[in-house]
Amino acid sequence: MITQNRTARALAGTLLLLGLSGPAAAQRGPDATGVWLTETGGSKVRIARCGEGYCGTLTSVSGPGLDAQNPDVSLRTRSLIGVRIMTADRAKGDGYEGSLYNPKDGKTYAGSLVLKGPDVVEVQGCVMSVFCKSQTWKRVN
Length: 141
What we know:
Layout: H1 2-27, E1 34-37, E2 43-50, E3 53-61, E4 84-92, E5 95-102, E6 107-117, E7 120-127, E8 131-139
Antiparallel strand pairs: 1-2, 1-8, 2-3, 3-4, 4-5, 5-6, 6-7, 7-8
């Protein structure tokens, strides 16, 4: 009886340690925080932790840099620098899901972010979860 009790306690302790190390182990994987160059090379996006995932804010853009296509007319003269274009704050499968704002057309799409390696992320925007477009961004810092 004493041996069974010790074995049960040892097993419970091991399971507790494994359960506590799970989230910590997940955080040691690739991290998307940093500055990323978009696939076209025209913009840089700073990705930071946000909720359970990540958010992305424009840090540089080519051209005039105004939010000229925004559906809100009062925002069409604002600078795109500092505008949050990505919110992927919900973990799903091997990545994160949320929304993406495309300043080129002023629309917001269902989106996702998947880390493909320490210096590569894939960002995808979809309309009606059927018509999707992906971009591969590369880390610049």
